[in-house]
Amino acid sequence: MAPKKVAPLPHNVRANKSASKKDADPLFERRPRKFGIGQDIQPKRDLSRFVKWPKYVRLQRQRKILRMRLKVPPAINQFSQTLDCNTAVQLFKLLSKYRPETKQEKKTRLKAQAEKIAAGQQAEATEKPTLVKFGINHITHLVETKKAKLVVIANDVDPIE
After folding, report:
1. Distance CA 6, CA 16 (A)
2. At 100, phi and psi to the nearest 5?
3. Per-residue pLDDT tens for 41-65?
4. CB 109 within 8 A of CB 126
5. Which of 60, 74, 78, 83 is the most exposed place for a label (fewest CB within 10 A)?
6. Would you call 20 helix, strand, or coil by DSSP?
7. pTM over 0.70
């Protein structure tokens, strides 16, 4: 068999090669660096892979990999999505209407009630106001007794109990 013929270089590439050889200046000699032992200093490399990352960074990365590899039950997976900005703003507006009373408000309410009793009037039996409940144990109890209507969980709570 006859050896295969290689196609010649395109005309513009051929012209560039010959021009670059002619342009080589004898004053500026090309000296490639050698990175052997005792020779040139090695170039800087990206060593971020070998950094000892803070514990919270390692944990969140491990958690992400575990979630990818494990089958998460749908009851727990529903909490992996966070609210978008608009929905979160609406939620906080709703929750602000049912904000628990502050110590100052409670003090004034109880003081007014005590003054009525001291004056000899009948204290009005008011209904318990609807408020936002909080605390893991309290919320867990409300969910178990099916009294909770809406449960909001922060996205950084782990594990979901």
Report:
1. 19
2. -65, 150
3. 988 899 888 999 999 999 999 989 9
4. no
5. 74
6. helix
7. no
